[in-house]
Amino acid sequence: MNVQPSPYSPYATADPAERHLFPTLFGPPAAGALLPTGCHALAVAPDEPLKVDPAEELPAGVCAPCAAAMRDDTASAPRPVTTCYSCGDQTHHNRLCAVCRAEAHQMWAATRVAAEPPPSTDVGTLIVRGGPISISPNAFCEHGDLAFTARVHVRPLHGRQEDATLNLLLPRCYLAKMFGAVLAAVDEDPSPEAQDRFTQTVTETQAVVRDTLRSRRDENGPAT
After folding, report:
1. How many helices (H) and strands (E) does the chain have?
2. Which phi and psi (to 5°) does residue 40 adopt?
3. What is the DSSP letter of 2?
4. 80 in helix, strand or coil?
5. What pairing do the DSSP bridges indicate for beta strands 126-128 and 42-44?
6. pTM for the whole thing?
7. How far apart (Å, rounded) are the C-alpha atoms in residues 169 and 47?
8. What Cα–Cα distance (Å) separates residue 205 from each residue in 29, 171, 195?
């Protein structure tokens, strides 16, 4: 019998091609959570836990170091120690510690683009009146691309006229659809002034974000 690999997460550090085991004392691990594995890495707990006896022959696809740890055999070799770029703690999980990875995974999982979005409360049409946009270093879309945070000031199109503030986390794969629609509209705009205004704003924003990313990369140094 072959088993499916552990569910994917861009924050998992365990081998993505294998099914990992989780040392637990109080029942099965929480489904969907990013948790420590028997091989001293991090993996996502599946919806249906794999119930196996490490003393018996394991199904194909199960992580051998996880099984060895369950049997109290030779433990996995320790991973190199690095500094977490988010909180500054020491970690064995490649420059992002287990706590920060678990929090980022939870945020990433909440922003995944579903084929059919869940039902939500209709708040009506909101007019965006501006606000800052930034790149979140710890949030990714389901494709593993960085997400963007936006703190936008909005006003309802109908009804009460008080401004409100919304904090949005925008997956890059969703923004690509928005950009495609905007670019098509700009291309078809007969006004040269409108096209120039759009191009200028895009160019200025691109320069600011590029400088920010390069500064962050220089501060963090090369990946280890």
Report:
1. 4, 8
2. 65, 30
3. B
4. coil
5. unpaired
6. 0.54
7. 26
8. 44, 18, 16
Positions in the chain short of pLDDT 70 = 1, 25-26, 52, 54-55, 73-78, 111-124, 136-144, 159-161, 216-217, 219-224
Task: Give 120's contacts (C-beta < 8 A, 6+ positions apart).
Answer: none
- Spatial distance between the Cα atoms of 171 and 139, rounded to a whole number of angstroms: 8
Contact criterion met (CB below 8 Å) for 96 and 85: yes
Contact 183, 199 (CB under 8 A): no
Q: Which amino acid is at 15?
A: D
Tokens of 171: 């997956």
Query: CA-to-CA distance for 166 and 151, rounded, in angstroms?
Result: 6
Angstrom distances, CA of residue 202 to CA of 45, 154, 182, 205: 41, 21, 12, 5
In this predicted model, what pLDDT tens digit does every residue of 29-75 receive, in sequence order?
889 999 999 888 999 999 887 776 766 778 888 888 888 887 775 55
What is the rounded distance in angstroms from the CA atom of residue 68 to the CA atom of residue 23? 12
23-37 tens-digit pLDDT: 876 678 889 999 999
User: Is the separation of the CB atoms in 79 and 92 below 8 Å?
Assistant: yes
Among the listed residues 94, 109, 92, the one whose alpha carbon sits nearest the alpha carbon of residue 9? 109
